[in-house]
């Protein structure tokens, strides 16, 4: 047959050649591992909708961190599940709040581990919204002061990075100002700049007991249909002082990750959220998918789309697989 074509298969012919041609690699340093901390003692309760994810009390926390560190993971993000909630989320910015205590404890035992603090109110408010509520409305500006207080208390406890996730307008500016005034000008902000109002957060809200008690989060989180708006959100957060930009969720938003990466010259972080985790876990438990292969493909896809870092509940699994391969 006299036809012309290109022989792409020449470069795929063996394991070694494929390894040489591989463009994207996962490393344990790519991951930030989320941990849920709870009040009480001797608690290690699995979250029903997130197999392999636990509520941990502080007496069991160091053992868990030891394992994480031994796997080569450099960073965790802490989420608090407080014993008490009220209408202004007091436990989010309390000096003895669960995240503040966890942070102090972890930084004392593992000073090199990079501890990220999630800065939001929804786990701490009785109405489950991310801000102050009045007459059924989530108020923007009065919430900013509470977010700045939360960030300062987390930095005081030793958090290395502040990650505000609540999507009030101006939250980066308010937190940057608060941190600077309190002498934390060296602490970076990893902003959830592009956060969609997503059904993929369902299992997390079980885990964090943070479902809104009325309405939804659509007046502050973004419409999944929007792309241009993502760039506006990212731009304003950068102007306000964000050091990293998070895109969340990740899997259904790989185009947004690439847009943000192309447009802005700062580290981009994907939040591989709870629903993305639980779907794979459930299918794997049924024997319907090959967990290792599918998780690796998903995370490689995020990196290929342009992320520098990934917040993922799979961090420990992947780090273990990487170790086994070497
Ligand atoms: C808090 C917050 C949420 C997640 C992280 N921080 C949930 C929400 O907005 O309801 C979701 C994380 C996940 O699904 O894994 N605002």
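Q: What amino acid sequence fits the structure above?
A:
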């Amino acid at each position: 047959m006299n036809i012309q074509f290109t022989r792409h298969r020449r470069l795929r012919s063996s394991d070694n050649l494929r390894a040489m041609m591989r463009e994207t690699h996962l490393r344990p340093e790519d991951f930030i591992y989320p941990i849920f901390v709870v009040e009480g003692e001797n608690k290690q309760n699995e979250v029903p909708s997130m197999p392999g994810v636990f509520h941990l009390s502080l007496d069991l926390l160091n053992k868990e961190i030891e394992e994480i560190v031994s796997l080569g993971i450099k960073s965790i993000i802490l989420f608090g599940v407080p014993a008490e909630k009220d209408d202004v989320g007091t436990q989010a910015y309390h000096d003895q709040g669960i995240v503040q205590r966890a942070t102090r404890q972890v930084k004392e035992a593992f000073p090199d581990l990079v501890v990220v603090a999630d800065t939001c109110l929804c786990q701490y408010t009785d109405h489950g919204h991310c801000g102050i509520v009045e007459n059924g409305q989530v108020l923007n500006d009065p919430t900013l002061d509470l977010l700045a207080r939360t960030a300062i208390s987390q930095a005081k406890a030793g958090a290395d990075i502040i990650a505000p996730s609540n999507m009030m307008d101006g939250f980066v500016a308010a937190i940057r100002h608060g941190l600077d005034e309190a002498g934390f000008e060296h602490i970076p902000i990893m902003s959830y700049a592009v956060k969609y109002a997503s059904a993929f957060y369902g299992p997390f809200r079980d885990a964090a007991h943070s479902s809104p008690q009325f309405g939804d989060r659509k007046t502050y989180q973004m419409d999944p249909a929007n792309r241009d708006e993502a760039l506006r959100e990212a731009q304003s957060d950068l102007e306000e002082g964000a050091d990293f930009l998070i895109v969340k969720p990740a899997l259904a938003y790989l185009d947004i990750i690439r847009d943000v990466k192309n447009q802005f010259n700062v580290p981009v972080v994907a939040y591989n959220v709870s629903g993305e985790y639980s779907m794979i876990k459930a299918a794997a438990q049924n024997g319907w998918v090959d967990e290792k292969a599918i998780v690796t493909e998903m995370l490689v896809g995020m990196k290929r789309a342009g992320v520098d870092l990934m917040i993922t509940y799979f961090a420990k699994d992947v780090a273990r697989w990487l170790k086994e391969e070497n």
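Q: And what stands out in the fold?
A: The pocket of PBG is lined by residues 118, 120, 122, 130, 165-166, 201, 204-205, 210, 217, 273-274 (CB under 6 Å).
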